[in-house]
Amino acid sequence: MQWLREFEMPNPSLCDELIRGFKKARELGFSHEGLSARGLDKSWKDSEDASLTCLPYDIYATAVRAYREHVMKGLQAYCKAFPILTEKGSSKLGFLEPPQIQFYKPGGGFYGAHYESSGLDLAHRVLAFQTFLNDIREGGGTEFLHQQHVVQPKKGKTVIWPAGFTHTHRGVVAPKEEKYVITGWISFIGG
Fold this sequence. Notes:
- The protein has two helices and 13 strands; from the N terminus they run E-H-E-E-E-H-E-E-E-E-E-E-E-E-E.
- The chain has 191 residues and is α+β, with helices and mostly antiparallel strands.
- The protein has a single domain (5-190), classed as q2cbj1_9rhob like domain (Jelly Rolls), CATH 2.60.120.
- 37% of the residues are buried.
């Protein structure tokens, strides 16, 4: 797919550490029911989410840092493929919002077709990324509707794509397995 790019984590065991961090954040009360642009609507999105910033720093700082480095390497490769994103005169890109770990029980999912920059409050998002933290045998991918493409879930795989309506997508339900992903955004951060 022309604008969808996949990158593999060099050390997929980092995914296990991030899942443990999510479980610890949940234990401490830092997770919440998944929200979307529609607010809380389980018929649209049925997940439990926690910001990466909610993972206990003293235990998970190294894992979060390693994950951000992985995303930044993917972003650099993406920008090399599409240099217009970083040409002189372009706005700078970076993180405005912390990525979030999303946990889906078997049968849960982000059912609704959506795109990541929908609405004025999200218009700063240029790119989106998603990392699969666990392997899933049945379902569990991300379906891009206009591209007629499903990204298959594989532990350590990160996908980067444009945040606009051209990349409207939805989750593919994993009927029998839990699903853990990290979703985040690269945004305009200034001149």
